[in-house]
Amino acid sequence: MSSDSEDEDFAEYGTPLDPLDEDELPKKKPFTLKDQVAADKYGRRRFHGAFTGGFSAGFFNSVGSLEGWTPSTFKSSRSDRAKGMQQKPEDYMDEEDMDEFGIAPKVLRATSDFNESSKKRSRMHQLSDGPIPGEPALRELLQPVKETVGMKLLRKMGWKPEQGTGPRLTKLEKRRMKEEYKRTAVKVYGCALPRDANKEEESGKDSPCSTDDEDDAQLSFAPDDLGPILCKPKDNSFGLGYKGLDRRPILSSHIDLFTPTPLRMEEKNKKVLITGQAFGVGAFEEDDEDIYGREDMSQYDFSLDTETTTSKQKHQITATAFANYAGNILIGFVLGTNAMTQKKHFPPPVLPQGFQPMHVLRKSRFEPAPSEKASLSKEKQLLKSRTRGLERHNLTATDRALILDESTPQVTVQKDTMTSATLEENKRLPTEELKIKEKLEISVKEGCSQFRPFVAYPEKQKRYEQYLTLSKVGQKDRLSYIQPLTMTEWEKERERVEFEQAARLYQPLSGVMSDRFVLASQPDDLSTPLPSVSKAVESDSEQRAAAKLKMFGRLTRQESDWRPCSLLCKRFNIPELYPGSDESSKATQKTSSNFSVFSFLDAASYNTALKIPESSDEPINDIPSAAEFPEVTAKQELEVEKDDTEANTHNIVSQEQKFDDSLLEFPDPPAKIDLYRAIFLSSSEDSDDESEEKASGNLTKANNSKQNVPQEGGETEEKTLSLEKLLTPSEKNTERNMSPPRGVFANLDLDAINARKEKSNKVPEKKEESDVCKNKQTTIDDHVEREQNDGLEQLAQDMYGPQLPSISVSATANSTSLPSVKKVLPSVVTSVHNEWVEITKKDSHKNRHGKKHKKSSKHKKHKHKKKRH
Amino acid sequence: MENAEFNLKCLKTIDTKQGAVRAVRFNVDGSYCLTCGADKKLKLWNPHKALLLKTYSGHADEVLDACSSCDNSQIVSCGQDKSVILWDVSSGTPLRRLRGHAARVTCVRYNEESTVAVSGSQDNSIMCWDVRSRNMKPIQVMREAKDGITSLAVTDHEIVTGSVDCKVRRYDIRANRLFSDFIGDAVTYVSLTHDGQCLVVSSADNMVRLLDKESGDLLAEYSGHHMGDYCMESCVDNRDRHVLSGCIDGDIWCWDLVQGTVTSRLTHDRGSVVHSLSFHPSQLFLLSASHGSIKLWGVPEDEL
């Protein structure tokens, strides 16, 4: 029994527990999930998630559950609306919210009087009431002073207000304490009163009772209520030295009216004052040194009597000021003791003449310089004011008088009052001025400009016209003599600028516009807004007269060059006469293609351009006599000469081209030839080649002959030559319609003419052409004739389309030359030729017999027609 | 005996129902006609049957003149809306609207082959439009006139224009020349005789003149009628024997071309202005327009 023995070794205290069964061994109870879930007092689950402190979600954690959250049943308040149901926040709260840890715990708390937060809330409600918004001031002032707990405790311990705390003291001790306190609390700098005197005073005060008190040494008194001396704990989180607004209620704290504001510095005669509200140095303050140092040497005066002296001086000044006052003092008034400080008056600077109060910015660097612009802007302002109807500011006295129908103020009166300087001017003026004026008067009467920009001011307009004449002469600076003396220099200058502008504006336009507009014959009248404008234009007068006399024809006809554009020619199936000039016409076309008003304005310039080359009234088909066309023939001579020189300088092969160029200014004849060949000459290529060869061959001859031409000087021949130039291209026209002749040609026996032509065309081969030519030439020189043919050949290569009407001239000039030309042509062109013949016939006929015959011929023609019908 | 033949009677009267008829024009072969209305519409008629064939609407203002192409496939018209419109005859839709004039376009003509439309306007310009290409800009602009263009005539190689500046201008494309003839008064209408040699010029001085085209000589004068302030049109008959002109009193005056004597006066509508005339190109038919009606004149079949 070892166990027994072991047991015996131990001493046992108390009663042993019942021995545990092995089965009943306490197992460690595992935590169930239920235990881990926080639940409210009703056993409802409070939180979601394993460890979360999340709030119950939805109504009783119904969120996420099967039934979801259902709101409380709806109760209509319609029937008992009159009750004025008051809804409280509690209606929407759970019970738990009212618990100790809820949102609105309903437990014992300090009442709202003592609760800062609740007070604030209530205050917020009342803020909006009353006429003065914001916190009511009185409430803040009259807040009850609260006794702190410390005071209560002290009271219980026997403390009374007005008493200090601490062990009781004897009177002597008390006095000593007081002294000590005074020494430490009140700092006296600089010269202070001697302490002894103070003591004596005090001791003197206390002396009557001191004797008694010393007797009662046993008696002890409560210590005086002296504030804590030095250590003032820093109870805020502001920066050092800064004192914010006191949050404490006013009555609870001591209001110190007499201590100076916390920081006051005087520096460089500038008072820097730092008060509570704000702190720091603004951007505009000088510097912020020594802001925190309350004690600064600058606070102290170093001299004793600065203040007094200054004040004294002031007094003296005022005394002297008022001593000088000699006037009567009104009853009830007293002489002031302080003189008003007289402000120093600074007169404004004298503005230079023509100063502009506005700075005008240049919008771009290409604009004129501001100095130049100044004059312009002045002008603009003037215009602006005029458009605004503020013209009245610019009216002079005379203008106003005119408007008001008053007698004009006499200039002479003003002259009398003028200063001597101007009088001198006057003396000088009459001689010079009168001369100029007289001259101008005459010139103006002649009518120098049609545009009158200043019609509204007749005087000004007159001056303007005079100015124009002056400027024509080149004496613009003499304008000042014309200007009236009543005008100031500035006005004169302005007018000068104005005139310059007007002259620049209206002058060049007048040329362009003049033929667009007719000058009004009478001044504008409101009663007749549309006065009839006489249609008569001076240039037309001759024609008009001719038309009146029924002398239509030469007198009423004008002829000028006109270039149809290439496309127009193409569309009309007419060959271009001057294919080279296509580019120029295109260029002009391009400018006019885009629609703009200016293109119509430009029309005037087109017109003038067209007018210039306009020749005399004679139509071309008239027989030109040498006397009538001296210039024209001269020109032609020149042309021929030019051709000659060119022909001489170049070799034959190049001559062929050159000749063409100089004649008709073709830029690219070779290309043209090719095109022509490709299109029209495919069938008769051989003959064409031949003719070309011949052309080059003949050219040499032609050149020879040409050199002779000027020497011979046959004017008529040259004329025909030039006309041949025009005529030739049509000769090869294969395009013309071959339809039976109509109209005037209806009566013609074409077959007969063809037969006649064929008769003359005995030798159609061109190889023998030159021979035939010789035979045919009767009046015209052989060389010239051949040259014509050559030229014709050349041109024929480049030209197609119908013949030109001007051929008739040559025909009338020399009827015998006709067959020779005809002979060269291929037979295809016969109809065209017939037309040509007809015209010439008619023309010649007409020219011989005049109008009446023409009519009769017409008549005949109709008869013919009728017969055929 | 001529006059006996020229005995026109009113064959048909058509109320176009388009306000005022500004112009009436035969087509190339004279089987149809076009009326330009003040109601912004252009109407195509068969005047011989008084049948309305088609109405072309698309102008923004009054239609002032029209011309049909030589193949009758297109019509070009112009109006107060400053535009020239090219129409497709069969579909009635505008093919091109040519804008370029700065004022109302008073007259428009095709050239012989209907490849170019020439329009004259109140803005003193004449514009040539290439109707073959899609070019919306004029191929050429003639600005020689100093006043509004009233009428145009186009032949195979020339453009004749009448202008209010009292001049008839003839642009000869072949010769590259411009001939301008001064007529005593504003030219209201210019047309060419069928032989192409003479110009028939109406002017505001109540006169119709026959001028020689080449020289500008006066061949004959026809007077007696009154134009008032109207832009009265004139024409010659199909055989160049008579000159006809409208009158403000509603008559159509016919003169003998050669003698210059009044042969007959046709009364369109007493009291209303007959301002537009168009003669059949080959037959004895005349169209006249006055107010809202047009009339076809001709020799009745039973008389032939």
Describe the structure.
- The complex is a heterodimer of chains A (869) and B (304).
- With 869 residues, chain A is mostly helical.
- Among the domains of chain A are: 410-513, no CATH class; 538-611, no CATH class; 630-868, no CATH class.
- Chain A is built from 31 helices and three strands.
- Chain A has helices at 2-9, 33-36, 116-126, 137-141, 149-156, 171-185, 195-215, 306-323, 370-387, 397-404, 411-417, 420-446, 458-473, 479-482, 489-513, 541-548, 566-571, 582-593, 597-611, 630-649, 652-664, 669-680, 685-712, 715-727, 750-760, 769-776, 782-798, 807-813, 817-824, 830-849, 851-868, and strands at residues 263-267, 270-274, 557-561.
- In chain A, strand 1 and strand 2 (270-274) form a beta hairpin.
- Chain A is elongated.
- The C terminus of chain A is likely disordered.
- Chain B is mainly β and 304 residues long.
- Chain B has one domain (2-303): Methylamine Dehydrogenase, Chain H (7 Propeller), CATH 2.130.10.
- Chain B contains one helix and 28 strands.
- Chain B has one helix at residues 2-5, and strands at 9-15, 21-26, 33-37, 41-46, 51-57, 63-68, 74-79, 83-88, 94-99, 105-110, 116-121, 126-130, 140-142, 149-154, 158-163, 167-172, 177-182, 187-192, 198-203, 207-212, 218-223, 234-236, 242-246, 251-256, 262-267, 276-279, 285-290, 293-298.
- In chain B, the strands form seven sheets. In chain B, strands 1-28-27-26 form a four-stranded antiparallel β-sheet, with no helix packed on it. Chain B has a four-stranded antiparallel β-sheet with strand order 2-3-4-5, with no helix packed on it.
- Chain B is globular, with a radius of gyration of 18 Å.
- Chain B starts with a helix and ends in a 6-residue tail after the last strand.
- At the A-B interface, helix 16, strand 3, helix 17, helix 18 and helix 19 of A face strand 13, strand 17, strand 20 and strand 21 of B.
